[in-house]
């Protein structure tokens, strides 16, 4: 944290995370104080001194409101997320109506839902009307239909068209990321004309690192980076210094393509054009950063078996809903594995050591399979895996599995031998480990590559599938070998 | 993909991902053609027509080299990553020496290692000398000591000081992300003076979206965004339009703080100051994007039990090394779980159904525990969990666990009853499921919160720990209850 500046912070200015956390604590103190007053008055069980209560109540709320007015909408969003539902709605009521739209954009989906539920349709319409069309499109899926229709009617025709366009793009496409805040210039003017033209703006759109050079038909001819505009002689013509070979995106491109381009070429903004090279929008780095974060989070959540991000203060029932689907899938795969064991109950009755050893075979297989699958999914996502690389990758993964199987399987075989004083049990253990690791390697390569060939997301449920295979497979291999050779 | 432009692409210009993949394929075709020639000549087993071979060989290599010269260093890096080791080194040889440094910066750690191993110390020194100090610091850990010392000696004193400074910051701090390409101005000059000053540059540093306003002692007074510089009247003084309330970072701040600030406030660059508000560097959004990606990847890899990113064409032995540590941990936890089962072998012998049912109890517990822990780890990372929230979170998670336990445990109890025609077995199954889910919920909250209180990374090995607890715990609860009530 840095020493506080002497002047009070301007509204909407960003703050260091430590300061924001201090703000959260202040808000919590104010809320707690207010609650204490209410409790005290209630507890005395006397005719309530409503006047006093009201006064104190109002004083705290006014203090809170003042605090909120000095804050950036993203920070308000953070504080709302960190508060339990009742306190959250109290604070939300105090947020100035003109920030409602921005704050709704910034909060997580789960929290947004709780806020929207608390708002009257007229408030929602007012909030939505503050937003740009591209922002509105982000919010639209969460708005009640009536509200959306009202907002739609209130838009000028051209923005209505923009909104319709953005909403028509699928999630995870460039179209869904783009905005329309481009500054365009012609190529046949001098830089000082451009400079004068820019001075007619009150301000330039955020993330304007380059101006888009278009012809009469709005076709993109090149870009004029501000860095070039600022260093070249004012009498130079735009066409002489503009960059012509630039990266352009199309609205139908996958968002991941934009993310890779921004990451690889360190872009701040990029033009979106249609098939005739007509400029239709732009993508900025802040939209890309949000996309990257959300993707990473979605992956992590899916891997752990959660459908979506959870409001940590959500009612228990919402959490149950968010988690039940993957638990159900897990239940089915566990049940299948259990039935595999059931088929060998006779063997287990005769040699009960099998029951104690079998989870090891299944568990290590699952872990190794997850390692393989994660590696392949990542390589596919980065575009490093050609469809014909399958054989090469299989060969390598089988090699790794064989070495791991010999080392760990051998070790566990010795342990089993020593524990149960049965050499043949040890050999079966080692053989089962090696085989299950080979299965894990093969399936770990084939699942994501097959999903890719089918045009699906290679990460989709991959972890669940591999664990299902290595569990059932592990039990089958181990108990099967044991039944053949030991029983 | 967009229609190709009429002029040939400029060197180093970014390309659409589809074009880059086309380039990769072209490179592969050229490599394959060359290999075929070599094989043919070898196979004929005649005195080799060395002249012919050499000619064809050279022709292909020249074509390849030409192809590479038109490419952005990030795209060359991508192609190197997608090629197996022998072809990778062949292509690497053809990359112009002046791009070596940039390409080394762009490739993944694993691939970088393979490239550096193939280079002579003198080549490495030459490559390193092309880089800025902040880039050099990123590369330094991978360079042989001798090379680093040589590079160090070749630097002018002030850059040497910068390099020493950047390298002294720990990974994952703002200091490790920052660069030194700031453009500074004084507050008492007019904007047109600033504009004239900027024209003296050949070009402005990348990601210059704002100029830093400093006083005589280099203390930060504010920033002048280019957007403001461009729209305000030229005679205005800097002090009248500069932003004074700005977000500043310190070099010791966690990188995650910078990432959150960039994400929350949509920044392109931010000033890094010392405790006296002296400007020491800046962080730009491209460094933050890379950091966010790397963090997300590291999380994913760790979750799957991989130490670091793998070069998919790495020798088998490297992959084994990357994966063995987590497999070993998993082996230990699996062994402990196995010993828990071992303690109940008597019960299993008497009622072999227990062996088939016990993995279900353990598996569902592990899945539910991972759901809880992922949710809490995420909330902690976003700063949403106050240390005193423990009780509230525990209460909620216990609630979710109870509902899930009643639903899924009840269902499985019925299934067990039906399968084995034993109502008491069904009741034990249900009770064990409920208890293990409660254990999973409690441990899922307590592990990350305790790690946080101890100042550790709450995600560190969390998944392994929770699975260890729910496996051993699940077996213990189920077999224990069964032994008490059924045997």
In this structure, how is the largest beta sheet of chain A organized?
3 strands, mixed
CATH homologous group name of the largest domain in chain A = SLC41 divalent cation transporters, integral membrane domain
Number of helices of chain A: 22
- Greatest contact between two chains: A-B, 148 and 147 residues
Second rung of CATH, namely the architecture of the largest domain in chain A:
Orthogonal Bundle
Number of extended strands of chain A: 6
In total, how many domains does the architecture of chain A comprise?
3
Cα separation of the termini of chain A: 69 Å
Structural class of chain A: mainly alpha
> Unreliable segments of chain A (pLDDT under 50, ≥5 consecutive)?
1-11
Hey, roughly how much beta strand do the residues of chain A contain?
Answer: 5-15%
Largest sheet: spatial strand order of chain A: 1-2-3
Overall geometric form of chain A: globular
Rg of chain A, alpha carbons: 30 Å
The chain-level mean pLDDT of chain A equals 85
Helix and strand layout, with pairings?
The structure is a homodimer of 487-residue chains.
Chain A: H1 17-43, H2 50-69, H3 73-82, H4 85-94, H5 100-106, H6 109-117, H7 121-129, H8 133-139, H9 145-154, H10 157-168, H11 174-177, E1 184-185, H12 191-199, E2 210-214, E3 220-225, H13 226-231, H14 238-241, E4 248-250, H15 255-265, E5 269-273, E6 279-284, H16 285-304, H17 316-343, H18 345-350, H19 353-381, H20 390-420, H21 423-453, H22 462-485
Helix pairs in contact in A: 1-2, 1-3, 3-4, 3-5, 7-9, 8-10, 15-16, 17-22, 19-20, 19-21, 19-22, 20-21, 21-22
């Amino acid at each position: 944290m840095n020493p506080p500046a002497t002047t009070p912070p301007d509204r909407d200015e960003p703050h260091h995370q430590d300061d924001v956390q201090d703000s959260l604590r202040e808000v919590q103190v104010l809320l707690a104080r207010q609650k204490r007053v209410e409790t005290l008055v209630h507890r005395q069980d006397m005719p309530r001194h409503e006047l006093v209560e009201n006064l104190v109540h109002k004083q705290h709320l006014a203090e809170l409101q003042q605090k909120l007015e000095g804050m950036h909408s993203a920070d308000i969003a953070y504080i709302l997320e960190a508060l339990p539902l009742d306190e959250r709605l109290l604070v939300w009521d105090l947020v100035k109506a003109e920030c409602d739209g921005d704050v709704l954009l910034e909060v997580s989906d789960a929290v947004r839902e709780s806020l929207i539920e608390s708002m009257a349709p007229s408030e929602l319409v007012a909030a939505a009307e503050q937003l740009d069309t591209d922002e509105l499109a982000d919010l639209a899926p969460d708005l009640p239909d009536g509200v959306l229709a009202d907002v739609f009617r209130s838009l000028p025709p051209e923005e209505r068209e923009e909104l319709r366009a953005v909403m028509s793009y699928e999630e995870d496409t460039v179209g869904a990321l783009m905005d329309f805040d481009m500054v365009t210039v012609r190529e046949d003017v001098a830089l000082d004309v451009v400079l004068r033209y820019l001075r007619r703006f009150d301000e330039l759109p955020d993330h304007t690192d380059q101006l888009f050079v278009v012809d009469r038909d709005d076709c993109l001819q090149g870009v004029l980076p501000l860095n070039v505009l600022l260093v070249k002689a004012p009498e130079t013509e735009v066409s002489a210094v503009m960059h012509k070979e630039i990266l352009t995106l199309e609205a139908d491109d996958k968002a991941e393509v934009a993310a890779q381009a921004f990451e690889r070429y360190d872009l701040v903004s990029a033009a979106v054009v249609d098939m005739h090279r007509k400029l239709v929008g732009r993508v900025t780095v802040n939209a890309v950063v949000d996309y990257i974060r959300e993707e990473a989070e979605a992956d992590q959540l899916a891997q752990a078996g959660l459908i979506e991000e959870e409001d940590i203060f959500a009612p228990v029932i919402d959490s149950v809903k968010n988690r039940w689907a993957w638990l159900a899938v897990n239940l089915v795969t566990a049940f299948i594995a259990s039935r595999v064991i059931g088929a060998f109950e006779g063997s287990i009755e005769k040699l009960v050591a099998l029951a104690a050893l079998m989870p090891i075979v299944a568990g290590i297989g699952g872990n190794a399979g997850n390692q393989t699958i994660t590696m392949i999914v990542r390589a596919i996502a980065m575009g490093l895996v050609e469809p014909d690389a399958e054989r090469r990758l299989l060969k390598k993964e089988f090699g790794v599995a064989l070495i791991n199987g010999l080392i760990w399987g051998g070790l566990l075989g010795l342990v089993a031998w020593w524990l149960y004083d049965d050499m043949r049990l040890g050999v079966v253990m080692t053989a089962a480990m090696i085989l299950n690791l080979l299965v894990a390697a093969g399936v770990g390569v084939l699942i994501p590559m097959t999903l890719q060939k089918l045009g699906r997301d290679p990460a989709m449920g991959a972890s669940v599938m591999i664990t299902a295979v290595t569990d059932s497979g592990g039990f089958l291999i181990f108990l099967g070998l044991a039944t053949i050779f030991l029983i």
